[in-house]
Amino acid sequence: MLNKDNYVPWSSHIIRYARSRPNGKMIVESIENGPYVRRMIATPGEPDLLVPVLESFHEQTDEELTENDIKWMDADDQAIQTILLGLPEDVYAAVDSCETAKEIWERVRQMMKGSDIGEQEKKAKLFNE
């Protein structure tokens, strides 16, 4: 569970745990670089028609996903769950609107960075008194 005073050890623990899971590399990739992005598939045009039809593109459909693509998408879901399970309720509530593991990871990091600054200011005031 995330201790607000120890973000760095917590983040290291989460990454190590993610790596130990099946598809661990994919989970860490999702946390650090974002989710799987569906490819754009080219549909050939028909230039010989009376009104030529140019090549067009469409987003990859579920039927066009490969087994590896599906693994990446599953890893994205696992990455989100891995992070969320390690968060206290107040932090979870703050990141609940995030849609990707990377978004959650960044938001938690920003929140903890802010609390680190607050702690540093408190310590500085104590030493200066």
UniProtKB/TrEMBL annotation:
<protein>
    <submittedName>
        <fullName>Uncharacterized protein</fullName>
    </submittedName>
</protein>
<dbReference type="Pfam" id="PF14223">
    <property type="entry name" value="Retrotran_gag_2"/>
</dbReference>
